[in-house]
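Postdoc handover notes: sequence design on the structure in folder B. Input tokens:
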């Protein structure tokens, strides 16, 4: 995805150094099968250099996504990024925001949550990382293909008006905010960028969803790349396509 990649490199060079800190909430890569694999990927090496340069200018934080949760200490050390736990509460411009990737909030997708619980086990990850690199890549590609087919199948068979099980649930948002003692939530994963005012029982909160970045679709589809800018004036979306 050359246009998307170039916009990210431009973002690291031109846009991101203007702020005090940058938070990347996972899924920076389509998949990650081990830090050793990055040594054989010119593209991932280019991303590493861009992030390493950015980290010398502003504090840069990283949070694992469902596609790149195996991104490890070696790559992080080379980029200078600081790893955050999922979720993490941070203070920005006088307010406290709960940051997470978002896949843990999709609790209606029971099959995915079972899969997630297994692949996040350290012994499973250790076994996977000991496999030959070409095996790991083949498994990752198969999982991506199966995920895409399952998503299309669910779209076709879901009853009209039913909640999309790949979206977050109010109950999951409520629980994570209670546990973090917060009422401002930011996440990605679902690719449904929007600002929500939500409530459940006596609990109220605001939720912001990050967009995916995709500038390489045909013109008939909507390309997009945005970020959230948070300062003393609050939270706003910045359209990085127009900015570019």
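Designed sequence:
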């Amino acid at each position: 995805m050359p246009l998307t990649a170039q916009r990210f490199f431009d973002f690291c060079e031109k846009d991101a150094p203007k702020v005090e800190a940058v938070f990347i909430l996972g899924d920076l890569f389509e998949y990650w099968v081990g830090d050793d694999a990055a040594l054989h990927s010119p593209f991932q090496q280019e991303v590493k250099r861009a992030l390493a340069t950015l980290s010398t200018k502003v504090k840069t934080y990283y949070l694992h996504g469902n596609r790149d949760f195996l991104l490890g200490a070696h790559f992080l050390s080379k980029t200078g990024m600081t790893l955050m736990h999922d979720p993490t509460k941070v203070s920005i411009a006088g307010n406290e925001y709960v940051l997470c990737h978002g896949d843990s909030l999709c609790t209606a997708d029971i099959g995915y949550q079972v899969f997630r619980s297994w692949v996040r086990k350290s012994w499973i990850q250790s076994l996977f990382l000991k496999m030959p690199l070409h095996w790991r890549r083949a498994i990752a590609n198969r999982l991506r293909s199966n995920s895409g087919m399952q998503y299309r199948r669910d779209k076709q068979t879901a009853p009209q008006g039913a909640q999309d099980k790949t979206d977050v649930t109010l109950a999951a948002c409520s629980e994570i905010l209670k546990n973090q003692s917060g009422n401002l939530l930011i996440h990605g994963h679902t690719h449904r960028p929007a600002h929500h005012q939500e409530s459940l029982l006596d609990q109220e909160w605001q939720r912001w969803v990050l967009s995916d970045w995709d500038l390489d679709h045909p013109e008939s589809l909507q390309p997009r790349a945005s970020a959230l800018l948070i300062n003393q004036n609050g939270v706003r979306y910045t359209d990085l396509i127009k900015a570019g």
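Context for whoever picks this up: Residues 170 and 200 are 7 Å apart (CA to CA). Don't rerun without checking with the PI first.
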